[in-house]
Description:
The structure is a single chain. The protein has 21 helices and five strands. By secondary structure, it is mainly alpha-helical. Helix 3 links the parallel strand 3 (50-54) and strand 4 (77-81). The longest helix is centred in the middle third of the chain and has 22 residues, at 230-251.
Amino acid sequence: MESPRVMFVGEDQDLWPELLKSADRDNWRFTFAHGGDEALVALDEQNFDAVVANLTLPGMSGAELLQEVRHRRPDVWRFLRAQPEAVAKAEGWAAAAHQVIDLPVGVEDIQTRLSQAFTQQVWKPSPVAETLLSTCPLLPSPPKLYYRMVDLLSSPTASLEKIGDLIEQDAPMAAKILQMVNSAIFSLQLKVNRASDAVLYLGVETTKAVVLMAHTVSCFSSLKRIALPAEKILTHSFHTARYARWIAQMECPRGQTSDQAFTAGLLHDIGKFLLAANRGEAYVRAIEYACKGSMTLQQAETDFFGVDHAELGGCLLASWGIPQPIVDAVALHHKPVWMGETGFAPITAVHAANVLANEQHAVDLGFVLSELNLDYLEAGGYGDSVEGWRNACVSRE
Length: 397
Ligand SMILES: [Fe+2]
Ligand SMILES: [Fe+2]
């Protein structure tokens, strides 16, 4: 790609000189607009590779602007600069941006996000997935409790008790979390009665992942019946999360990879809930079609909806501003080759964990289960590691 062209929209002129310096250095072309109307005029007159908009703008909001950019120029990368909690209150947040850039963030971080996007090191939701997501009547809103936990954890006075207190302030969520943690899926030795005990037992990162899962599932809990057995998806998700964490711990013992792999494993099939809840009748037919045609569910979903559950789930998490490695892992767990060779990442762990978890805890719903993509694993140098991963996961259970 030659000289990427990026438009920044917002009133933070303090940042502009620094951005211009970095554009000069990397031979990028930057344009600046104060508000949405000015940005849309520029968009009609020039070609851009990306638009980076602040959520708060004069006139229309950044989310509204990016929705308009999505309709006019679906090929352009869209970034929303906002505190994730503010996104939760924004009208039209679903599929507004390909990525949310948390505030405050400096020029270097913005450059990194843009450059990863332009060099295809991160997944980009497709226009079909975005249209489907934005027209879903039943959509879990951005997870406020999760954002508050992330916020609290960034403070130097954070403690497990404070995280527990925070969860208990949200009584319906606390009840949902306790119900999930005390279910057979978690197989805890003791019954946990308070959210703060759950945090102690599970640790902060697992609790964050459970909060995301409980938030998502609670949106669908009033549904009497969905096309797929919800309990089975949850159990499979939990097995996948644990396997993904263990595999990641073997390959990447330090850093956030194993926690991100766990979170992505837990959330990897949430697109199935979205399809079942919002396209229920068509989804029943897609499942029958997969069973009769001896194909995988994701093949049938693609034939029916133009997008599979993995991509749809990734699209929701991207709209929420969940960390990108988690989004990538969810969106591409059936198509990891899309990522190319990026070294071991949560996607590697979740792709393998999903298949290995199905080997050990098969849920026979009649369609063909997905297989390991050996081309992808071998290209990354992990072809010979699979047996070790399988043995480790089985023995740790
Ligand atoms: Fe899946
Ligand atoms: Fe799965």
